[in-house]
Amino acid sequence: MTRPVILIVGAGPGVSGSVARLFAREGYDVGLLGVDAEQLGALGAELEAAGANGQAAVVDVTDVETTTEVITAMGEVFGSIDVVHFNPSAFREQDPLELTVADLLEDVALGVGALLTAVQAARPFMGAGGRVTVTGSMAADQPWHRAASLGVQKAGVRNLVHSLDTTLRPDGIRAVSVTVRGTLGREGAFTPDRVAEAIWDAVHQDPDDWQSEVPYSG
């Protein structure tokens, strides 16, 4: 029987790594796109130990052509993509009087635009029941002025998820942003593992009561 597949865009040691490990334990094969070869290698080894088949690629996801080629190649190897999880964002400590338009657009290209690239590339391999998930943040509603571009990214990606969900729904594919209303830490309700569980739950919502934004408040 063919195993389901999750593609993780922006894979690393935090929430995305926890998502990868959780889905692997639940029987998924995993595709990883990230920027750090060492981190991808370590995560890939963990997934293999958990019994998952994996594909990993070091790629700048703001490079539309290369990212599209990589996702297409992974889709062809796996045969299908059941879940796309989007995690990247840019943290730039600049307030609105320091932030330049060029810097803002560069950050939005990563934290919002790359979601378009990922979904458009994965779509030919997704069928009814497919899901798109995004790691959201309370910064969408309560931005810290010293990281002004992050709030714009998180508000923008949440808005894009709503549009993706409406667009994909007729084909039985749904999209959801999990808005993390707390600060990630090593202990307590906001560990990466706990957030990953919230993302798992969001993927497995009842389609008849689907919400394209799910808050996680711990």
Automatic annotation (TrEMBL):
Query: In terms of domain of life, where is this protein from?
Result: Bacteria
The UniProt transmembrane annotation reads none
* Keyword Oxidoreductase listed: yes
Keyword check for Protein transport, yes or no: no
Enumerate the UniProt keywords alphabetically.
Answer: Oxidoreductase
Which family does the similarity line name?
Belongs to the short-chain dehydrogenases/reductases (SDR) family.
Q: What is this protein called?
A: SDR family oxidoreductase
